[in-house]
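Input sequence (442 aa), recorded before submission:
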Amino acid sequence: MNIRNQALKILISVERDGSYSALVINNSIKENKLDRTDASFLSALVYGVLERQITLDYIIKQYSKIPLRKIELKTKLILRLGILQLCFMDKVPESAAVNESVILAKKHKLMKSSGFINGVLRSITRAEAKYTLPDKVKDKEYYYSVKYSCPRELVSLWLSAYGESITESILKNLSGRPQLTARVNTLRTTPDKLISELGKECVNAEKSDIIEDALVLKNTGSIEHLKSYKSGKFYIQDIASQLCVKALDPQPRDIMLDICSAPGGKSFTAAQRMNNRGKIFSFDIYEHKLKLINDTAKRLGIDIIVTDIRNADTDSRELALADRVLCDVPCSGLGVLSRKPEIRYKNDLLSGELPELQYRILCNSAKYTAYGGTLVYSTCTLNPDENIENVKRFLSENPEFRPIDTGLNVEHRIDEPDNVLTLFPNGKTDGFFIAKFKRIKL
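Predicted structure, token format:
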């Protein structure tokens, strides 16, 4: 198995077909039965190219007489792979990075390109400094864009919204794999018991220092093959999503609506907090996603979740008033770019249509909050137009809702009201936004 060739195939699939990198990588590892070493190298190559694409293309421009737009896709991808290994992977010998790239080009019948690839890569190996970044003083946005391989429009957005210190922190956390966290299924076990059981399966597990009943996992291998996973003692869920449910604070015997529920993690966490007593109505627009929710609920021993197809934007069917309403809306996903590195290059990433859609979903959902009930609005993005601006508009146009403290003991890194919390990616949590409201009678 030629791992570099497999990485090239995956990158072509992502580039041409819009495939999600994580899914294609996992499928490749399973289909080719790669051991941990090969799987790790494959992931490092693919994620490395996707995470550093702007930086890699900047380096290509410094060494190539051919404009980037005129370089054929496979040739460009092989160059990116080669430069990644030369400039950002210390354990790969320079000779291997160059020679294997040329071999890869020939394998794909890129005979003319092989000489071009060889020339560019060898020029990099001979250079005193492999590349130099843009001048930060002359153009700060361009400097950060190239250094951290992030589109300039995102850098500009974050600098304007959050300032330079937080922006650079966000950018630094775009690369590398975020920690893997599990939610302990407290209906079946305890954190201490699960840590012990996972240890017997050679998985390192430690308690989260941010939220109760969450574990940080290492050396998991294939999670779905773990006995403790199959027996429904945990599921994978980021800390930010767990904090979102903690803010909602569902209680036993509550009626809860999870408006955009797939893949269902927040419904499962709510069910545990409710001790599997009460009722949770979980909605999504796709039947196959609802099936996944039902299957996982069965594995976890949860029987209070009722799923149904519903378009949160347009469905006019009346729902029962609920004690808790969770409105986790579709968003641009800027808080989870480290998990989905390819989406940062989408042309419509800052589409002006999303905030309006989110606001309609929020208003349509809010009317099903019982008087005295709690409504939580959340996104996994870092864009004020999708977050705080929607909250301000909602409060100004819906006087029966009052802002209430999230109740989360987490540091606010920016100046914001107590009823909202912006989480920035830091290796422990994804980027996330949470806002909490209470409905009152006027």
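Checked by second reader. The longest helix spans residues 36-51.
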